[in-house]
Request: fold
Amino acid sequence: MNRFLLPLGLFIVLLGFLAVGLNRDPREVPSPLVGKPAPAFEVPQLADPARTFAPKDMLGKVWLFNVWASWCVSCRQEHPVLVKYAKSHGITVVGLDYKDQREDGLRWLRQFGDPYLLSAFDGDGRVGINYGVYGVPETYLIDKAGTIRFKHIGPITPEAMEQKILPMMKELEK
Amino acid sequence: MRFLTVLVAALLLAGSALAKEAAPLAEDEAVEKRLVNIAEELRCLVCQNESLAGSRADLAQDLRREVRGLIKEGKSDQEVKDFLVSRYGDFVLYEPPVKPTTWLLWGGPFVLLVAGVAVLITYLRRRGGQLAPAELSEEEKKRAEALLKDEQ
Reply:
């Protein structure tokens, strides 16, 4: 009996590793930017190219920085959630229209609603690269001091909003 | 027949006259060479099993553009890699750095090897002890001899 215990134990350990490995999403790459100041940039706004947006404009506020695009399929899934929570909970969301055409982005907002305080326009994707964006949508939670506190990769689900993002925002608001 | 020969000759000549040296794909070959060198050690985050050099993903093209720019600015290979790691994390490197969080990754196989060899050695020793030929007692020897004689 005893000589089976060791292989069995090793097998269970291996099984544990495999179970954890299989249940992880390989697309979710932890961002090294969490805990660091949000990279500075200044780009034209989507609605009005004459005006610009820079993250430092938001100092003193807790806000979400949501990277989206009109060509992004998952963004359609996420968008109603943002619209709903921007309205019902009054959260501040700034958009970044990533690698998009200006008219397409604006049409998209007219069609599906605009939850954003404003959207910045990142036509060539440079801002995205500085934020380590590799798949839209991605969302950064930025605190009053301009530090990135959390990054959500992929569409925000109502559960992620309720369980993770809203509590964190409330905590940081204090 | 003569007409045909002339035609073939003319076509051959025309062909060689038209053939030009293949134009280099990039304006600056040295930059491109370094770009490929660096990009082959970097992972494309969109299609994770492809290198940044080989991927046709949109993001990979953008990142190659950034890397090209950095090379032209005279940045070293390490600085280019640091640029990407600071944005995308160690995951972009196909060869992760050795640091406390990756000790298990780097050392794990060797730990397993040593453990395996240790288990093998103890097992073989124990088995060797069990298999040692037992000495025959006087009585058994006599019986064996008697049996061997009987055979003949």
